[in-house]
Amino acid sequence: MRHTKQKSLIKEIFRIQEHPISISKLHCLAAEKIPGIAYSTVFRQVQTMLEAGDIAAVEIEFRPTRYESSEHHSRRHFFCRRCEEAYRLDDASLSATN
Q1: pTM beyond 0.70
Q2: Higher local confidence (pLDDT), 53 or 73
Q3: Three-point CA angle 9, 16, 93, nearest 5°
């Protein structure tokens, strides 16, 4: 697999994200740094990274799939209907509420 400027940027975006993000949001963030980056390029990179295990899919019923870095992946997420963001719930935050 080739190492490209687009791939490096997409990896960096996933690394710094606090929340799982959709491909559309990822494309917008990438376009801020590389104007003119094609949606199809972002889509292909997401598929490649997903197959390689670098990122994980976060499925939210009736919403576009979101993705996050595998190193940040949590099995539990909270989806806010107001802001349309998915938030990770780690075991520590769940234990603190008990």
Answers
A1: yes
A2: 53
A3: 155
